[in-house]
Amino acid sequence: MKKALPLLAVVAACAGGKSSERPASPAPDGAVQVEDALHGVSYQLPPGAGGWQVANDGNARVSSGVQVEIATFPLARQASPAACRDAARERLKAVRQRSDEDDPQATRSGGAQDIPPQADGPRNDTIGDAPTALWLFTRGPASAPVRNRWAFYSRGSDCLLLQVSGPQGEAFADQVFDSSARSLKVLPLSAERQRDVDLLAGMGFLERRQPAAALDRFEALTRREPGFAKAHFGALMAGFEIGTDASSPRNSASWRSGRWASCSSRRTR
């Protein structure tokens, strides 16, 4: 079964190393409590036939083909569940449009209408706002469609994504999504872990040629940890990229003499 996650390049699961699976420990009522220290969340799953297998990165699966995955991706500034959903939808829309442009069939009568039935783009989608921002859609070939259920949460400037996928028409997947989405708790990260997340987010924005977003993340980190040299260096790099982009709204004399000079003075102390 194809996963939705690779299509959403903005999503960074942040899982390090190879994930091993273990039998899940049932809660007193037969439900399964999942504690994901990597992403800083906890959630509950209903009892599943054959038992759940839970990976160290917080992902889980059951023999019926239902899978649960946790992922994170950054925004430049303060995030909200709705903003996270909008960002994810825009990213997938952009990926779909690029696929249309690369597909010779897409030019015959105007793009997405000519994508073959087996195309892997989101379709039959709906959105909701309870218990949090939701997005439900179908992917995969017509012969074996997969229903994806996404729930969005936020922590500071980062988005957390709960994904439940399963074969089209699998009723148990709906039960799993309802239980996990309603029970999911976003937990605070340690100072060290949050520092790493912010630093990786800023570097990721730089790599994707989004220096303004990178600068926002690096500057937020320098305000929280004034002595963290890597954050100051990242801000310098982002400022340099902005300074070379004549079309950037931040490429002005006032910005260069203000923020850029401020970053430079901090770096050279």
Task: Give the helices and strands, then pairings.
Elements: E1 21-23, E2 32-36, E3 41-45, E4 53-55, E5 60-61, E6 67-74, H1 81-102, E7 123-128, E8 133-139, E9 146-155, E10 158-167, H2 171-183, E11 185-186, H3 191-207, H4 211-224, H5 229-243, H6 253-268
Antiparallel strand pairs: 1-4, 2-3, 3-11, 4-5, 5-6, 6-10, 7-8, 8-9, 9-10
Helix pairs in contact: 3-4, 3-5, 4-5, 5-6
Mean pLDDT across residues: 78
Helix percent reads 25-40%
Structural class: alpha+beta
Shape assignment: globular
The major pleated sheet works out as: 8 strands, antiparallel
SSE pattern, N- to C-terminal: EEEEEEHEEEEHEHHHH
> What would you report as the Rg, rounded to the nearest angstrom?
21 Å
- Strand arrangement in the largest pleated sheet: 1-4-5-6-10-9-8-7
Distance between the termini: 54 Å
What is the tally of beta strands? 11
Kindly estimate the percentage of residues that lie in beta strands according to DSSP: 15-25%
Quickly count the helices: 6
Low-pLDDT stretches are: 1-19, 104-119, 246-258
Structure at a glance:
By secondary structure, this protein is an alpha+beta fold. The chain has six helices and eleven strands. It is globular and about 55 Å long.
Describe the structure.
The termini are far apart. By secondary structure, this protein is α+β, with helices and mostly antiparallel strands. The protein has helices at residues 81-102, 171-183, 191-207, 211-224, 229-243, 253-268; strands at 21-23, 32-36, 41-45, 53-55, 60-61, 67-74, 123-128, 133-139, 146-155, 158-167, 185-186. Helix 3 runs antiparallel to helix 4 and helix 4 (211-224) runs antiparallel to helix 5. The model is unreliable at 1-19, 104-119 and 246-258 (pLDDT under 50). Strands 1-4-5-6-10-9-8-7 form an eight-stranded antiparallel beta sheet. It has a three-stranded antiparallel beta sheet with strand order 2-3-11.
